[in-house]
Design brief:
The protein has about 45 residues and is mainly β. It is about 0% helix and about 35% strand. The chain has no helices and 2 strands. It has a two-stranded antiparallel sheet. Strand 1 and strand 2 form a beta hairpin. The relative contact order is 0.28.
Length: about 45
């Protein structure tokens, strides 16, 4: 299971930067809180 959990405090959204082992960097902007977000390598903004 590769799930991670992030606490955002009072924030309702967050910007994510994911650095994959392959060297690919994906950015996801304004990801809403209180959800399951599935990241797929190469599918960032």
């Amino acid at each position: 299971d590769l799930r991670v959990h992030f606490g955002l405090g009072a924030a309702s959204e967050a910007d994510l930067e994911i650095r994959w082992p392959s060297g690919v960097v994906d950015t996801h902007l304004q990801v809403k809180a209180n959800q399951v977000f599935i990241a797929v390598e190469g599918k960032g903004s």
